[in-house]
Amino acid sequence: AYLRAIANPDDDVNVRRILNVPKRGIGDRAEAQLAVLAERERISFGAALERVRDVPSLATRSANAVEGFAELLRGLRELAASGAGPAEILGEVLDRTGYLAELRASDDPQDAQRVENLAELHAVAAEFEQAEPEGDLADFLERVSLVADSDQIPSPDDDAAAQVAAEQGVVTLMTIHTAKGLEFPVVFVTGLEDGTFPHQRSLADAEQLAEERRLAYVSMTRARERLYLTRAAVRTAWGVPNELPPSRFLDEVPSEVIEWRRSESSTQSLRSGWGRQPGWSGQRRSPVRDSEVRTRKASSTGATFGSATPRADVPELDVGDRVTHDAYGLGTVVAVEGAGQHAVAKIDFGSEGTKRLLLRFSPVTKL
To answer: What residues form DSSP beta bridges with 189?
Structure first.
């Protein structure tokens, strides 16, 4: 809503949505009086903000808050007009408004989810800037659709709509909760990494982990004919790449029903861009070859999609331990999740950055 209000000052709906988010002391009465001014003068709500002093009955405190909000929007629009990209504008919005700081200070799990959603939006904006160097904020907003997925899902009873969707090759994006009760010929389940699915907050909570396992089952059983399970070796949040281990839920899929495929990937490019993913080939990325298609045993389904062999001596690490890594050098353990074969450590390697490593596949030695 902030980005749309910046791009279009006359977008009354989104300007009013962000008027008091985060809370800045502008109440419903002040908003109603500004709306009356806009209607009387036949101007937009955004233009009425600039004329707040024309509302004589408005309390001084509220008027000052409205002027501060109008000044905030002016500054952000000047930034956009100067040629700043959508990722930079989004970052400034979150910093100048204090919205991100407010969410991070909250103990509400939903606010933690909002932070993750904002991180994903920032990553999408950064990718857009790389793909479209000449694109501006308006181009980005045109590219990104923020429509609720459920509004685009054909009813299970609407055979005609389902047939049209199938013939047109329509791909429907939705959450697992939205997909309950629906089935599709082909389903893709993405994000199968520990820390993503299951979520990082669930790794240390048996009850939450069980709920996410149930959701994983729901997602996989939406497919009638073919199911694709995918994961990322590296994910970037707020511009910082993190190496992620495969989801433990992959260990629980029967090996006889899985056909594993992977593309060769450059180890050196991973190291230079994000850090090395153990077990990946050192060759350049190439199309999947038939020789690379194979069925794995259940005991190895949690491994990286390469030829790495799990270590028998998984190190037991605690926060504060000093370690050494074959590629990243000396580091300090800042967090540990899970235990044994599922132990994951977050390690600060100084200039190499902070990495999340699945210890059974990582060349880490405790000092």
So the answer is: 229
Identify whether the C-beta of residue 219 lies closer than 8 Å to the C-beta of residue 259.
no
Task: State the Cα–Cα distance between residues 350 and 335, nearest whole angstrom.
Answer: 15
CA 10 from centroid of its chain's CA atoms? 30
- Please tell me the distance from the alpha carbon of residue 185 to that of residue 239, in angstroms, as a whole number: 36
Q: At what angle do helices 28-41 and 60-81 cross, to 10 degrees?
A: 70
Spell out the domains of the chain, with CATH numbers in brackets: 2-143 (1.10.486.10), 147-182 (no CATH), 185-307 (3.30.160.800), 310-367 (2.30.30)
Identify each DSSP E strand in the chain by its residue range.
184-189, 223-229, 234-237, 240-243, 322-325, 329-337, 344-348, 354-358, 364-366
241, β-bridge pairs: 236
Distance from C-alpha of 116 to C-alpha of 204, rounded to nearest angstrom: 19
Task: Note the pLDDT tens digit of each residue in 1-26.
Answer: 999 999 999 999 999 999 999 999 99
Please give the pLDDT value at position 197.
92
Q: Cis link prior to 22 (omega < 30° from 0)?
A: yes
Dist CA 65 CA 40 (whole Å)? 22
Q: Please, what is the end-to-end C-alpha distance for the chain in angstroms?
A: 50
Q: Which residue(s) pair with 41 in the sheet? A: none
Helix/strand/coil for 293:
coil
In a 3-state reduction of DSSP, which class is residue 255? helix
- Phi, psi for residue 299 in degrees, rounded to 5: -65, -20
Give the whole-angstrom CA distance, residue 225 versus residue 326: 43
Calculate the alpha carbon distances from 104 to 35, 99, 175, 291, 293 in Å: 32, 9, 24, 47, 43
Of the given ranges (11-20, 72-81, 182-191, 287-296), which has the lowest mean pLDDT? 287-296
Q: What does the buried/exposed string (b/e) look like for 235-247 if buried means 16 or more CB atoms within 10 Å of the residue's CB?
A: bbeeeebbbbbbb
Task: With 0.85 as the threshold, say if the pTM is over it.
Answer: no
Report whether pLDDT(302) > 70.
no
Q: What tokens does 17 get?
A: 């949505």
Cis omega (within 30 of 0) for bond into 133: no
Number of helices (H), then strands (E), belonging to the chain: the values are 13, 9
